[in-house]
Amino acid sequence: MTMEDLIGGLPAYAKDMKLNYSSLVKQNTELTAQQLWGTVVASAIATRNAELTAAAIAEAEAAGLTPQALDAVKAATAIMGMNNIYYRFQHLTTNEKYATLPARLRMNALRGHGVDAVDFELWCLVVSAVNACGKCVDSHERVLREKGAAEELINAAIRVTSVIHSIGVVLDSEKAAPTPVAALT
Length: 185
Hints:
Blueprint: H1 3-8, H2 15-26, H3 33-47, H4 50-62, H5 67-92, H6 117-130, H7 134-146, H8 151-176, H9 181-184
């Protein structure tokens, strides 16, 4: 199934998602193609919706996302899947002792990804936003700005992420409790 099929099949209550996908992804002018499609894929993977992830990867590859960039996106989502849990725990606990203990988590993917550092940081940021890890969001946003990324670029990626995440929520909702056909007309 393609992204267009998924978007076209969204129920009437998700019309805003269709419109936002069209304006923020299909007509995007703020992100490079690699940043955009990496963000779409990273966001889809972070939703944990297999159908959306498969469609996003296929669309990204058709749009020219290279195998190396796709691997970097997957590495960013994997490493943030681990880090977001660890650092979100540190953020949420009132026991300050945990912040003084070593993480002892291997994070080689942060350096050996083979794509532009801004792009990789952007994908780490968007996954951290989906996973609601304040420490990681703050850290990656700061690194992006230090590397010269403007707030407008970061905001554009977060807008795309919010729409992709919302589409995943709608797809999961419809799988669990489909909207009756009469409600769609």
